[in-house]
Amino acid sequence: MAHLDPVLLLAIGLLMLVSLVVLYSASGGNLMRVFGQFTNILVACVAMWLVANMPLHYLMRSAVPIYIFGMILLVCVALFGDISHGARRWLNIGVATIQPSELMKVAVPLMMAWYFEKHEATLTIKNYFVAALLLLMPVALIVRQPDLGTSILIGASGFYVLFLAGLSWRIMLGMVLMAVASAPFLWSMLHEYQRHRILMLLDPSQDALGQGYHTIQGMIAVGSGGLMGKGYLHGTQTHLEFLPERTTDFIFAVYSEEFGFVGNAILLAMYIFVIGRGFVITANASTYFTRLLAGSITLTFFTYAFVNIGMVSGILPVVGVPLPLVSYGGTSMLTLLLGFGMLMSIHTHKQLVKT
Amino acid sequence: MKRTVELKNHQREIYYFRFRLMLSLGFVLLMMLILLLRFAYLQLMKHDYFQTMAESNRIAVVPIVPNRGLILDRNGIVLARNYSGYTLEIASRKVANLEATINELSTLVDIQPKDRKRFKKLLAESRNFDTLPIRNRLSDKEVARFAAQSYRFPGVELKARLFREYPFGEATSHLIGYIGRINEKDIHRLENDDTASNYRGSDYIGKTGLEQRYEKELHGSTGFEQVEVDAGGRAVRALTRSAPKSGNTLRLTLDAKLQEVAANAFGSFRGALVAIDPNNGEILAFISRPGYDPNLFIDGIDSDNWEALNTSLDVPLNNRALRGQYPMGSTLKPFMALAGLYYKRSPTYTINDPGYYTLPGNRHRYRDWKEGGHGKVDMFKSIVVSCDTYYYGLATELGIDRIHSYLSKFGFGKKTGVDMNGEASGLLPSAEWKMKRHKQIWYPGDTVSVGIGQGYNLVTPLQLASATATLANDGVAYRPHFVKQIQRSSGNTPEVKPEPTLDLHIEPQNIDLVKRAMEAVTKPGGTAVRASAGAPYRIAGKTGTAQVIGMKQGEKYDADKINEYNRDHAWFIAFAPAEKPRIALAVLVENGGHGGATAAPIARKVFDYYLLGKIPKPLPASAVKEGDQSD
């Protein structure tokens, strides 16, 4: 237990508790679902503990192999991945199907932080471009799968590394302008359903039984929760199955309906608690690599939460990002806790590195 | 020095890093604040609005469709019933790609091209996004296969439903009619009647026949249930419920077995038969041949069958018994004789028939059907041998006004008022009518041909049967009707006790003379010997022949069939037992030639079954086609 951070552990433990409680309601009292999530948590915690106990130079050394391995898998997916629900995201490796984009959520910030650490002494603008390229290659492959949610998260995690590594404001301004200028091109790159989801955000009622349905039902659930909520297990939107994907992407709507504005404020506080602890760890990190990695992990965790809550409450398009630590799902739980494991490792191993 | 610079750089670097971290923290807090404001907007400001939305989301009023009433014959034999089965339905608004979904479904259940065609047709004419059936009457295997895979098909539902079925099929097609899916026209009519709300949830409505006429009785009243539903529209829990009331059961006056015997007696002939109990106007058999399979129509007929039924030269969809209008030919003679007697023509008045008739001052010869004539003919013989010359003279003597006045008492030229929609009124001509219709005055020559039932005069088989029943009942008329009793779920209602609609007050000796003459028609020397040969009861009847005016120019026809379709129509009216009639009927055989040859044997089979319970052996059609005497 030596290398676990008790404060961060408490913070994420609270959110996991929320997850089990809300899942019970969201699944309509299905204990199997709750138990399943409990297993996910246990497995992820073991992974977190292993990573937390890993000395930092192990982490650094693993960055390049993990990244290259991930990229190979992504190319494989693009070439001969399984298609499910209209998207080519999965790779059949005989015994199981895996989703390499999940691996990249860890691999990209790791690789970029490693790259900046490597060139710390002689950082020039060229290094930022190379780092950006390391980011854009996997993101482009994932956008084409298509998987908008994952590519946003990975894109964000990479951007945070660039930002914390001191990317000049002028270049960032130039990137924003370029993004605006290339918007029509990007728009044409998007899949039909992705465009549809963005359009629906502007007017969800246009397609109340189609794509706008998710947004409308989510907003109804949140809005009808009121100040105090309808009470645990009493959300009508949830229990009458109006809400789609109640246990996964839309679990926040379930929580929000049953616990209301007050509950939401508490949940935001819990997330701020986790993020705040992440910032403390980042600020105290001893090396360039660990600072960038810790900062990226923390901010990516925030992005997760913000995008999910934003889409459920109707201010962001529905992009398929789960609510971190709460939504049902083993993979996202695992990648998140791997991240927290790294944070803990960074925090608990720093003295050793310093000396 | 160098080291301090490096150290300084390192410190600056950390300083910059922490600055950017603080900016990030600010950004995080700002975004969290935005979320909080969004919650405040949704959950505090707009709470009432979303609360209402959530409420209306979960409570739906679901109609419960009542069971449609049964239709039974007079003895309780089922003519229209319901059976439960499974249907596969698609809520088209919830399915993004109908074609792909149907293709997927066809791997689980058998979906024929005709099912797809029918679905498309229904889709085109459906009202406000109904769920529409893609397949009806699924087999148990198909039900099981789909049920196991149903999660793959959002918007596709397996529904247990009652189907309508007509066990007698073609034999009762024109009588019972059929139900079909409610269309725009039906909705319009229901809205006008203020009954549209009773049809919420109903997919079917009576389209023709008794199913249409007694729709109000058969449909029942729709119940309602307030249910909590999920987004898929599936009911989760019932809140309140008002039970539906099943439709009433119709018990008909019809004898189903008689109906079947009569339908079979036609063989391959086209035509119509209406049999009535003369003592009360109860319709015992009601045939229009050819019929069609009413079961085809229930779920929307497929285009191939529809095409076949509509383009057939035999027009099977035409209800000949109710709507077919034909010249009545010599079957008019008994009624003309009664008119003569009423207007004081002596029964013993005798003519010498040379085989033709001429109007005074005119050389045009109106020919008798028999060349050389019948010799001395009085009223009795005029009916037995069907002497045309006698009736040319009688008609001229009476004049069209008196003929019109008397015959209309038998119901000619007007609807009988039977309890079925779409009845034709036939035509009983008058001078007034001709002026209105043809802008011509009535010529004496017109009267001559009216006297033998040709020229301007049309009758439906139902009208003629009704008139025959009135004659058989000594001039006391009843309205022909199909329904004997409407059985309500609250308890049986008493049987319909028909009151006479009219008493013609025919002198007993007059009706006696005509009836005796009609009985002689079926005896040797008469025109319909075949009708009564070997019968243990007495039959009174009259044959008739209706001339067919050739097909109109430009009409489609089958060259092989043209001769057959130009042949005369054969009539036979009869009642039995002659002394105390229990059944009266009119038979029309289209293009059947002479009534005694083709129509009379059909009548005989009907009588044999009704009076003796005898089931006739099927006869080859050729056996009845050979002629007796001519008319």
Describe the protein's architecture and organization.
The complex is a heterodimer of chains A (355) and B (631). With 355 residues, chain A is mostly helical. Chain A has one domain. Helix content of chain A is 72%, strand content 3%. Chain A has a 3-stranded antiparallel β-sheet with strand order 1-2-3, covered by helices on one side. In chain A, β1 and β2 form a beta hairpin. With 631 residues, chain B is an alpha+beta fold. Chain B folds into 3 domains: 44 residues; 192 residues, Penicillin-binding protein 2a (Domain 2) (Alpha-Beta Complex); 351 residues, Beta-lactamase (3-Layer(aba) Sandwich), CATH 3.40.710. Helices cover 37% and strands 19% of the residues of chain B. Chain B contains 23 helices and 23 strands. In chain B, strands 2, 3, 4, 5, 10, 18 and 19 form a 7-stranded mixed β-sheet that branches. Chain B is elongated, with a radius of gyration of 36 Å. The N terminus and C terminus of chain B are likely disordered. Chains A and B meet through α6, α10, α12 and α13 of A and α1 and α2 of B.
Structure summary:
The complex is a heterodimer of chains A (355) and B (631). Chain A has a three-stranded antiparallel β-sheet, covered by helices on one side. The model of chain A has no long low-confidence stretch (mean pLDDT 87).
Give the tags:
heterodimer, A: 355 residues, mainly alpha, three-stranded antiparallel sheet, 14 helices, 72% helix, globular, B: 631 residues, alpha+beta, Penicillin-binding protein 2a (Domain 2), Beta-lactamase, 3 domains, seven-stranded mixed sheet, five-stranded antiparallel sheet, 23 helices, 19% strand, elongated, disordered N terminus, disordered C terminus
The whole-angstrom Rg of chain B is 36 Å
Largest sheet of chain B: 7 strands, mixed
Total count of helical runs of at least 4 residues of chain B? 23
Strand content of chain B: 15-25%
- Enumerate how many helices of chain A there are, as a single number: 14
Give the amount of beta strand of chain A, in percent. under 5%
Overall pLDDT of chain A: 87
How do the strands of the widest beta sheet of chain A line up side by side? 1-2-3
Largest interface: A-B, 48 and 41 residues
Query: How many domains is the backbone of chain A divided into?
Result: 1
